Amino acid sequence: MSNYLSEIFKEVPDFLSILGYQDCYHDEVSDEWVVEYLPSKNLTHSNGTVVQGGFVSGMVDSAMSQFLIYLSKGKEIPLTLDLDVKFLKPCAPDVLVIAKGKIKRKGKSVVFTSGEIYQNKQLIAIATATNKIIVL
Fold first, then answer.
1. Is 58 within 8 Å of 15 (Cβ atoms)?
2. Burial of residue 133 (number of CB atoms within 10 Å: 0-12, 13-18, 19+)
3. 51-78 pLDDT, tens per residue?
4. Cα–Cα dist 94/119, whole Å
5. Predicted pLDDT at 10
6. How far is CA 22 from CA 42, 98, 117, 135, in A?
7. Of residues 97, 101, 86, the one with CA closest to residue 121
8. What are phi and psi of 57, to 5 degrees?
9. Of 21, 37, 114, 135, most Cβ neighbours within 10 A?
10. Do residues 91 and 80 touch, judged by C-beta distance below 8 A?
11. 8-26 burial, b if ≥16 CB within 10 A, otherwise e?
């Protein structure tokens, strides 16, 4: 488990393991949260060739949310109010996926985020989300 997640969670949440979580980190140069996934064939349709869009959505949603959790050192939990994902190319199984999350604007109780997903250095999905912040 990445040092970043272990600072917040005792273990990787089950849903991240299902998505094929590999690692995560804060890219300080671009000020983005980066999460690496290796989605398995179990997440596919179309005879095992395309990762189902709901799983791709979960990957990018998680990248955006993890960034908020990381920045608050686990004291704020984002609840996704809306998530808009545009699929640009199919996501293949057993090929590394890079999900990136960025905070566009943060208020006291609502945060607006954006995200991107890459595979083989090609942009395959873009997303935006609105999150309600719950303070622990």
1. yes
2. middle
3. 999 999 999 999 999 999 999 988 999 9
4. 11
5. 64
6. 16, 10, 15, 28
7. 97
8. -60, -40
9. 37
10. no
11. eeeeeeeebeebbbeebee
* Under 8 Å between Cβ of 22 and 86: no
Domains in the chain: ranges and CATH: 3-135 (3.10.129.10)
Residue 121 CB coordination number (10 Å): 6
Give yes or no for a contact between 112 and 104, defined as CB atoms under 8 angstroms apart.
yes
Over residues 118-136, mean pLDDT: 97
Bridge partner residues of 127 (DSSP): 85, 115
DSSP string spanning the chain? --HHHHHH-SS--HHHHHHTEEEEEEETTTTEEEEEE---GGGEETTTTEE-HHHHHHHHHHHHHHHHHHHTTTSEEEEEEEEEEEE-SPPPTTS-EEEEEEEEEE-SSEEEEEEEEEETTEEEEEEEEEEEEEE-
pTM above 0.85, yes or no: yes
